[in-house]
Fold each of these.
Amino acid sequence: MHLGIGFFATDLTNDIRDVARAAEDAGFESLFVAEHTHIPTSRQTAYPQGGDLPEVYSHTVDPFVSLSFAAAVTERITLGTAVCVVTERDPVVTAKEVSSLDRLSGGRFLFGVGVGWNREEMADHGTAFEDRWAVLGDRVRLMQALWTSDVASYEGVHARVSESWQWPKPAQSPLPVLIGGSSRTAMRETVAYGTGWMPMPARQALPERLAELAALAAAAGRPVPPVTMYWARPDRGVLDHYAALGVQRSVLLLPFEPDVLPTLREWSRLVREDS
């Protein structure tokens, strides 16, 4: 099983270049960054993890800018979004950013996508919360058309593009699209158009969720998608449990602190124990 690092790249925390170099030097397989375009001050939507919303959420650096800097100072580590909130983005522009980053990084990008959880943030982008999964599906499918066809078009309810050229194409084919979310809907969408599922720990036992994912894939006549567990606990017993269940990758989220490098160095022992 691969071990990755999750990081909120902000103007309050370490420079993404320092974190990327340290993660690669420590032997981590991947580095994922989060995205929020803004946080409305109304705060009507409760923080999913409970309590007050951490300040870093309103300070995130654009993920494609930050990962471009990370790619420029590294050679091997895989770079990803966890997650890119596609329901708040223009899909044609995002398709160009994704393919450009994958091409310039030498095929090191993992496109983790999600619907988002903040109703007010989503509304500011013109997306109705009730439509979020349909919006995500249309926009990802549009992007996949642009990545794979010389002359691409897509006509959906929530996204469309006329017959168009768009280059560069991603270095990877297919480009990995990891669907974030722990719900049955997220699993169903993963089977429909994703290449991997990226849940977080939830109340439902993971073996039950993996069995449900396998059943959905079998019903659709599709292979079971690989699983990336996001926000995994930095605990050897937990990670070994995930590995035994067939989880492909576990991502440890660095704390919301100004200096995360000491924690990253401490967690590097988990990489050494795996080798």
Note: Residues 132-148 form the longest helix (17 residues).
Amino acid sequence: METIDGKDRGSLRTIAHRVMLERGLLPDFSAAACGEAEAMSGACVDVSPAIRDLRALVWCSIDNDDSRDLDQLSVAVPQPDGAVRILVAIADVDAAVRRGSAIDDHARTNTTSVYTAAQIYPMLPERLSTDLTSLGEDQERLAIVVDMTIDSTDRVTHGEVYRAHVFNHAKLAYNSVAAWLEGAGPAPERVASHPALADQLRVQDAVAQRLKRVRHQHGALGLSTPQAHAVYADGVLSDLQADERNRAKELIEDFMIAANGVTARFLEDKGFVSMRRVLRSPERWARIVALAGTFGERLPAAPDAAALNTFLEKRLAADPVRFPDVSLSIVKLLGRGEYVVERPGETVEGHFGLAVNDYTHSTAPNRRFPDLITQRLLKAALAGAAAPYAYDELAALALHCTVQEDNAAKVERQVIKAAAALLLGSRIGQVFEGIVTGASDKGTWVRILSPVVEGRIMRGQEGLDVGDRVSVRLVHTDAQRGFVDFEHARTSR
């Protein structure tokens, strides 16, 4: 095993590359896939009269500051009766990625882009995901449009799906848009110079806030689980910081949830099988009840999303600083989502955390293979063609995508832990305050807050469970294996 003796990005890339392979993910594209990407002369075009021309609408994208793989645009169209049409344009990746091609084979193997602290391993070659199939600023692109009407009672009363030509008038970033919407910062440059765009964003924000309120009334969980991201200074790792939620992120999240619901119902109405995203009722509900009890709150004995969300809202109001810790504990106890296949007329379990029954993944085809699968189903349904995937094949793909998504998450966690090990290597013996994030026969894990690091409690973990607050002492780090080991501080050394 190679020796890692520095905090430079190259050291972490070496680790990330190895861990990708260990988890059954491809870190590099094949020569055939690279050749296919290079052979593409430009973005795909289609002059079919069935494709609508929506380029004049004031579309914009909102994503991370450094994102170039732009999957969706949004625009609002107020109606005379007080309703608002929300249109979400999704990059037509299928137009460029032929099923069975070398590029498609790579995407099918990995099923997702992998975002590590060292580098991004995109699902598609960057020539596509950040250019030819990205809905880039000042670019005309083919798209699948989900067109929804939200009435004055905040219900989605109409939804349709169709193909269109779109044009991104502004590439905006979450943090600057959120600061402007909340009155904490100036308008982003493109917004300041484009009054219609400013009006657009205000309408979109208002509709998103309404959709969120209705979802939470139905039991959608208001969780806040900041993710750690690596901070580099001149190529050297300097910190791990929490990536906080904000109003602009919530705007996009609420529109994507609504669009994915419309997409699922559209496929069902067309008689098509679909790949659904589900989060089953939590098996560890009893521990969730016990955790709420430590705050003097009582939850019902059976899983109840609405009651759980009421508890979360109370905790947020009572202690916003520590609310992310409570959220993280709940997320760990809820378990992971999975992909399942639903036939027309069947009913599979819904998404417990989002409080929705009809939900698929369709809005990020540059980054997730299930979304590309759904896009191919949609385009077949729109064309009146047969479904491109048989039930058995789709069921196998759903299982594969669930497994690979879990593997990708493990890669991301291991690389962020490798980064943490590099940062903390000189702090052996220091005591940190943390919260228990995992407890099972496999081990007990704790998260500390500064830097944002998760590690294993190797001694003194007996009796600890998810949500417990503990003081832990750092006893060992191993960047190669992504180990950050603690002991309960009450344990004598």
Note: The mean pLDDT is 91.
Amino acid sequence: MNSATDGSAFSGAVTVYITIDAGTQALGTVGSGVCTHEGNGYHTYRPSQEETNGELIAFTFIGSNAIPQTIQVTTVTAAQNSALQAATGTFAVDVNEIVSDALTEIGKLGLGQTPDSAVAQFCLGKLNRLLDLWNAKRRAVYADVFDTLTLTSALQPHTIGPNSATFTEAIRPVSIEAAQVIVDDQASIVTIRDAAWWATNTDKARTSERPTDLYYDPAWPNGNLYLWPVLDGAATLEIRTRVQLGAVLLTDTFWMPPGYREAITLTLAEQITAPMGAVLSQETKDQAHTARLTVFGVNDQRPPILSTAHMPGASRGFWDAEIGDYR
């Protein structure tokens, strides 16, 4: 903002008016539209969720003896955001693409072609059996999922999972990666804490309208969400969780850490080779082996193998079919 008299940086009181999709201009609802002067004529305003519910939002900043300023913001709808993440997410994986890529690897599908329904469903069944097998192992397949949860006042803990939980999920999360709490349309980051922090917290019963910390206990079958301080009002919790993969559909899109797409695609190609009457090249077998070693091998903590002379031995251990190598 600049002064209307001499053009200098304006540091006086500024309020904002909001226009949604060329509708009626209205004073901002957060703090009666009063803005914060950050310095050098720069003023900020944090709109409520309702004030961003539109395709084109205009924020008009005014101050006594200041030159009015208007900025326009083109928003992205929830549907557009979902489509954008699915299309451009760094680790977004389309199940149809995995199936098509696996069939292409074994020479049963040409580039740019689409498998027929019966073949696609067969491959999907093999894929779900593969994911189920990997989920049963210590080195589980992970995916990131975003959830919005309506919290219950004074409830501790909130549970999440399949067994009559506060929040129903087919599989309870492995971990909580990030979280924020929303109270009166104002969001704030929640610090993720570990079991040691929770165990040494001597004031677990403290209450507040805005929790600041979260300890997640991944119990089975339901996980436990311990918010601190304990919520004593109305709030929404947004969390990004890491979960084991359940069954997927051909139309599903999910997110996985780096390397898993290659490992899953090439392992699926191996498993459908015989049923599809195909022959898998040695090069593709080697690539599948390397991909599994990359995503699973880093999780191994191999104990030293000693010979009878108590010197490091040359034994290669036992064959692990999951990673295609000796352990």
Note: The chain has six helices and 20 strands.
